[in-house]
Design goal:
The protein is of the alpha+beta class. The chain has 21 helices and 16 strands. Helices cover 45% and strands 14% of the residues. The chain is globular and about 75 Å long.
């Protein structure tokens, strides 16, 4: 394959993968084949070329799926378009490094059999997604598995493995398809790779249902989500705050008329520090009038520093609890290393917040059971959400303000990722968004109710406390760690284990690489050329002080080969040493095809005769 087709295949892969994701195509079926062109492109190239091809493919993918980053900066941060474009390109390039690393590592491991290739490729992909979840505070946006958020049979495995199991299955199918067109391999081997991918998908679909706890029917509780659709441009304007409160008052009364016992407002729906402003009494009175529990998002500074918080207000108007957002958005709610990056806030026109993170995984007692709240960005971190359920939560509430994203792919991408938290923990998800998309998600990932985007409405539904503990809630990211371990094992090659490369020259009639061991002979590892001589070996094990053990392909025979680099033995062994040394010299032209097998045998016979 020439260079041009490889570049084209890599670019095609990035474009197809973007079309598979929500908001930029939503053709989830494409995800099962989108990576295959990239895998074909990097097959047989050196590591550097593989990494560059991966970088190109991922750059196209990220620029196509997160352009809203630049839009947000220009619209709400007054950042000039050229600078916003540079920031977008820098972020896309950083995220593309993970795909580049994937291709580089895959080229390094180069598994021979198609079955091994499928497993190693899928493991490497998931291990790097897992790394992206945590490195530099983490940015697990658009993991491969999220493309399947509507594929209910497959996403059930998330209750066992988290979203990483879905990513593994999708990556495995891509690897199987890439091996299917590997014409240099036998058809049985190629079909074996595709069979391995099919087995992975089958196991994922089956385990998701079989290993999940049996659902017990519990009383359903009516809930309501109020979507105020407050324009971000006037949200914090003091002149508009009274209007904002009036909007939420009307929507809340409507929710109460529908019988809701838990009414949820979005993130920072209250546009002032809740308990530091006398107008918060209007919120207390609203709770008393409706007789419902109000869960409202509002900033708070009762501990000194401002925090992005959620408050539960009981039917008596009293605050029953407060949760402070723990995982803040870097360069959105705070500036990392502010003393070093002091200029960032200036460039953003002061639009970056200065919030302090919370420290506790708080849950609230409500009619729907113990409720956990995650605010905005926190919903995309599987392990952090799991902590709430380990602490006894029954229902998950996600409050967010996606007005920042405008009419882009981000709101639906955000919803798709949040929906996986319901499956992973087998619990209902209630999601209230300022401008949408608000939703009620069932424990199996079904989006039961969903609002429109940039609409003002009340979304009603019912939820029930979770009936059991899912394997993921109990064991966490065990599967993801397993892929990390497998990836390390595939990439790291112990010094005492080497694999021989198949030489495509005719196989000699004899086995000239086998030498007799003389007393006092010192062993060393075979060189690459010596390995070519012993090409009938499938796997070699270099044992210090013994020799090289060779396992042949066609029959189980172990041959111990000793190589003598220097002659250090008694005079009585000199003849044997000279014989071995002569063979060592003859090996090099034989390995290069400069002498024929018959001539080699004749010469080695003469040398043995002394």
């Amino acid at each position: 394959m020439t260079v041009a087709p490889r570049w084209f295949l890599a670019a095609l892969s990035g474009a197809l993968l973007a079309l598979a994701f929500p908001g930029s195509g939503d053709q989830s079926w494409l995800a099962f084949a989108a990576l295959a062109p990239l895998l074909v492109a990097v097959d047989g190239v050196d590591r550097r070329s593989a990494g560059i091809l991966g970088l190109l493919s991922a750059l196209i993918f990220w620029l196509a799926t997160i352009p809203w980053v630049a839009q947000t900066m220009t619209q709400f941060g007054d950042v000039p378009w050229p600078l916003a474009g540079v920031v977008l390109l820098a972020l896309a390039a950083y995220l593309a490094l993970y795909t580049a690393a994937f291709c580089w590592l895959l080229a390094r491991t180069a598994p021979r059999s198609s079955t091994a290739y499928v497993i190693v490729a899928a493991s490497l992909w998931v291990a790097l997604e897992f790394l992206r979840t945590y490195l530099f505070t983490g940015f697990p946006w658009n993991l491969l598995g999220y493309s399947q958020y509507r594929n209910l049979p497959l996403v059930q495995v998330a209750a066992v493995t988290g979203v990483y199991g879905v990513s593994f299955a999708v990556a495995a199918v891509n690897a199987g398809l890439a091996q299917l067109v590997h014409l240099e391999k036998g058809w049985k081997d190629r079909l074996g790779g595709l069979g391995a991918a099919a087995a992975v998908v089958g196991l994922a679909v089956g385990s998701g249902w079989l290993l999940s706890p049996a659902r017990e029917e519990k009383p359903a509780i009516p809930v309501a989500l109020v979507q105020g659709n407050i324009d971000q441009g006037v949200k914090w304007d003091p002149a508009y705050q009274e209007t904002t409160l009036e909007v939420y008052r009307r929507l809340t009364l409507e929710a109460a008329r529908r019988g809701a016992r838990l009414i949820v407002w979005p993130e920072t729906a209250v546009p002032f520090f809740l308990r530091a402003d006398p107008r918060w009494r209007a919120v207390q009175d609203l709770a008393r009038v409706t007789g419902a529990h109000l869960l409202v998002g509002a900033p708070d500074r009762s501990l000194g520093e401002p925090r992005n918080s959620a408050f539960l207000i009981g039917p008596d108007g009293q605050v029953r609890g407060r949760y402070d957002k723990r995982h803040l958005v870097p360069f959105g709610e705070y500036v990392p290393l502010r003393r070093v990056l002091f200029f960032v806030d200036v460039l953003a026109g002061g639009a970056i917040g200065a919030f302090a993170p919370g420290a506790e995984t708080t849950t609230f007692a409500t009619p729907a059971g113990r409720v956990a709240v995650v605010i905005c960005y926190e919903a995309i971190f599987p392990a952090e959400v799991r902590e709430f359920f380990r602490g006894g939560a029954d229902v998950l509430v996600n409050i967010t303000n996606d007005a920042w994203f405008g009419r882009s792919a981000a709101p639906v991408q955000h919803l798709a990722m949040a929906a996986f938290r319901a499956v992973e923990n087998r619990a209902y998800l209630v999601r209230a968004a300022n401008t949408g998309i608000s939703a009620v998600v069932a424990p199996d990932g079904r989006i039961v109710q969903a609002s429109g985007l940039f609409t003002r409405e009340v979304l009603s539904g019912t939820v029930a406390p979770r009936a059991g503990t899912s394997p993921y809630t109990r064991y966490g990211d065990l599967f993801a760690w397993a892929t990390v371990g497998l990836s390390v094992a595939a990439v790291w090659r112990p010094p005492f284990i080497t694999r021989r490369k198949t030489v495509r020259s005719p196989k000699p009639t004899g086995f000239p690489g086998a030498l007799s061991l003389g007393p006092g002979d010192r062993m060393r590892q075979p060189t690459r050329l010596e390995g070519d001589v012993t090409r009938i070996a499938h796997l070699s094990l270099d044992v210090p002080g013994v020799g090289t053990i060779l396992f042949t392909r066609g029959f189980w025979v172990v041959v111990i080969v000793g190589i003598v680099p220097r002659i250090r033995q008694p005079v009585s062994q000199g003849k044997q040493s000279r014989s071995n040394a002569a063979l060592d010299v003859l090996r090099r032209p034989y390995a290069h095809g400069e002498i024929k097998s018959e001539e080699f045998e004749a010469r080695t016979g003469d040398s043995r005769d002394g």
